[in-house]
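**Paired protein data**
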Amino acid sequence: MKNVLVLILLFYIILLFQTSFFFHFNIKGVIPNFILILFFSLNYKEEKFHISFFSPGLISAIVGGLIFDIFSSSHLLGSSVLIFLALFILIKKLFQIFEKTNYFWVFAVFAFCLFFFKICLFNLHFIPFLIEFAYSGIFLFFLVFFLKPLKIYHNV
């Protein structure tokens, strides 16, 4: 339960950072999707694929989707939760096929996740997508490869 509250707080702080501070550092009107970056890195750092109620990837999909839905007015409540749940399963299945240690596949899977997310929200434009992928890739690289694994769920 404590880990769920930590995740809710973490996603909320990341969303506040994205919408209030980082909005001033846009490139051609595009800012990184920190909710998706955090969700992806939590699923990337999870060692094994298991679907249970206390799976860190599953909880991050529900929490991240709800936080994203609550603070965006462009789509129905619950649609981002369904998108994040589908991404949770896709990430786990793709990392069963591809190696997590190969950096190319990590960024390829992230590009696919960002593409899937944009397609599901009917918000895909080619040039802004490339800018967002490059911009988000910088933060993903820092979060995944330079920081130690997030130790939120190692005891669950």
Observations:
- The chain is about 65% helix and 0% strand.
- The two ends are 10 Å apart (CA to CA).
